[in-house]
């Protein structure tokens, strides 16, 4: 069963909640993690979407809480800011600063053997419940995530393909050897006419040994080799950009799963508080019924209210467990470990760049746009290679053969020879195959251009969507903070009225439900704000491959 969680907020002298409205979700039975070092921001550079440099620089994201540049134009939409008094969380590594290794708790890394899988129940039994921060989760994902691992291997594979393509610029040297022995199975008494002329015994055995060295060198290929190398290099660059996209998507997935787990933890804490309120309500109802001040109907309503609260708590606990395993699956941690969140539920930072500047920054930084430009270059290089197939090729071929042969009745014959040739080839007609290949590659180039435009529209939509959600949830945070304070006061008054006999059971149950709803809305507003901020940081990417 999950360890108990506590739900709390700062209060003033009147008992009302005050900012930052942080919800502490630290398990009581689990030790706290050591402090995490904050990442050191790096000096970023800018990149235009029209070029494809290697490696690809990126434009900077705003640091948390930093004011906009004086040269920034006035925004048409107000930029979202966290509620006053809130403490921004540390900036996510890789979003505006250089990646810095964050210490992670021990015992979370998976087995070194990828092909190993448990065969006994004890090997999958969870024995380590470890709280981690978001920064630690991102570091674990960078080290253990399988999608990232596959992307890195694909980049290494493409670099080997470049070395293979460049090897065509060098000559090839081959050594061949052949040893043969021949003779008759049956003894022949009469030699053939040729054997008689040569004086060869028909029953003799002959042995031959040939050794040769062959040299091949492509002197001229009409640009075929260079085009193939160019296509391979650009394909490798495309995979590097794919690695960057995968890394950023994994970071967004980890952040989303972490915030979802925070939300699940908070919902468990809220529903536990609702169960405690329902239990207290049931005790008061039974006491009033015993004293003759209440009715059986009020007690039954209190029992139903408690049963409903317990059901909601069980559902929240199930969602919490699913969220834990979902985060563990993305981080690829040990089979015997599970995770809880160590960060409090509070706004994770602010976004100070106007909407229009954010869109332009996304156009400059997103690797998806450069991927299509690189893919267009790949298609162009493949077109050049296809045209070179019909061009003139000139190859230098050299052979040197060393031959030794003889029979049992004759002496050994030595025969050394060499051959040096210059071979030219011109493909005059291939039935239209080359033109068909060129047509395919031209369509690939047009597809890359169409996808560039499609991704550009999608990137703008993603920035605008995240920006709008950030603004809406920022306003919701301020609204729900007031709602929670009002709901707490309403419940306090409803309890006093009910205990004094001037209030009804319905009023108290309604006040409890309103408080639970208000607390859930406040947590959802903060979580949704953090999710929108993570999505906006992803939409305006700033990671280098």
Model description:
This protein has one domain (about 130-180, about 205-540): Outer membrane efflux proteins (OEP). The chain has a 4-stranded antiparallel β-sheet with strand order 2-3-5-6, with no helix packed on it. It has a two-stranded parallel ribbon with strand order 1-4. The longest helix is centred in the middle third of the chain and has 68 residues, at about 225-290. The protein is elongated, with a radius of gyration of 37 Å. The model is unreliable at about 1-100 (pLDDT under 50). The chain is of the alpha+beta class and about 550 residues long. Helix 2 runs antiparallel to helix 4, helix 6 crosses helix 8 (about 435-500) and helix 8 runs antiparallel to helix 9. The protein has helices at about 135-145, 145-165, 195-200, 225-290, 295-330, 355-365, 365-390, 435-500, 505-540; strands at about 130, 170-180, 205-220, 335-340, 390-405, 415-425.
